[in-house]
Amino acid sequence: MRRLQRGLGKAGIVLALVLGVGAPALAGPSSVSTKTYKELTEIQEVMAAGDTRGAVTRLETLLGEVEADSLDQALTLQTLGYVEMSREDFPKAIDYLKRALGTERLPQNVVYNVGYMVAQLHAALGQFDEALSFAEDWFKQLEAPKPDQYMFMANIYAQVKRYAESAPYAEKAVAATDKPREAWYQLLTADYFELKKYPEATRTLQRMVKLWPDKGAYWEQLASVYMVQDDRNHALATLKIAFDLNVLEKESTVKSLIQLCVMRGIPEHGGRLLQAAMEQELLPRDETYMEMLAQAWVEARERERAVAAYSEIGETFNSGEAWMKVANIHVDATQWAQAEAAVAKALRAQLDDDDKGKAYLLLGIAKVEQGEFKSGKDALRKARTFKKTERSAGNWMNYADEMKRQSDWLAANR
């Protein structure tokens, strides 16, 4: 509303608009009387001095004196409307301007301009349906609409959720201006999203990230519209560029970038990006993101990095589960001593009963594989006390007995 007031608050401009309909002539139904012209001129001086209250008082007096349904009355009402506009009393301004139009005495070009003003005032008050009824008539009489005028119509239609009608106006406004306006592109993009015109939204957002590359939100929206079209490669490339430009604003967007990397079969790239994001403090180095980092290294078969990430989780957050994952990585690599050490740390950390059973089972396996049959079976006996590991522990105990017999036979026959 302040923008509207700034454009209309000067008393001199207001009266010039009112009196610009023609030179004073003899009183009559289609001309302004000398008396009214003189009074309006004096009121202009009052307004120029900043006394809008005094101007309103004199205009109200004049309104009671002029002939009904005359040009004098129309001009007085119009002037009252503009004065109330300058005072930011928009409801009163609307009432006066509508009454001026209702006299049907204003010249046609003035009718259109006053109608436009009423439309703007309704829009400023959030009364968009009322604004549209005046704006449509006003726009029809424009021979060569300007970009701002196209955009005014686009805004009004968008506000009443008539996006299919808003978009063409916004397109013409954007195409007709030499200097790109960010808010116009935003409205056009919003129209396309509402209409599910994703290719058009893509092209507009591609233009926006070139014009305003430091606005992370536009990169995120572009990636989003690629995802809607199931174009994950372009979505990933878009987010990667934004990440490299250091303009991503949302933690969730950076997270999505990492997940996309893993989904697209480049987990190593995702791991490196996640590591960089934490180093740049775009993401916290908390348990959730450290787990994501470790999993990315696992997917990338970067065993040492995965071990380092899970070990950091275990040490920092006293996570027995993380140490168990370290142990499993070592088991897969048949690194039994390292697996045993990791399980020992897991048992000293926080583990629920199910995980404790798995830990004792894994500890027993690691010891048996290293030829430590007695301590291995001790661990396996503990694993048998947990329901979920009872059977596996029993099988491994039988295996341990067989391995012990073979070991003893070999020792005896050397």
Automatic annotation (TrEMBL):
<dbReference type="InterPro" id="IPR051012">
    <property type="entry name" value="CellSynth/LPSAsmb/PSIAsmb"/>
</dbReference>
<feature type="signal peptide">
    <location>
        <begin position="1"/>
        <end position="27"/>
    </location>
</feature>
<dbReference type="InterPro" id="IPR011990">
    <property type="entry name" value="TPR-like_helical_dom_sf"/>
</dbReference>
<keyword id="KW-0677">Repeat</keyword>
<protein>
    <submittedName>
        <fullName>Tetratricopeptide repeat protein</fullName>
    </submittedName>
</protein>
<dbReference type="InterPro" id="IPR019734">
    <property type="entry name" value="TPR_rpt"/>
</dbReference>
<keyword id="KW-0732">Signal</keyword>
<keyword id="KW-0802">TPR repeat</keyword>
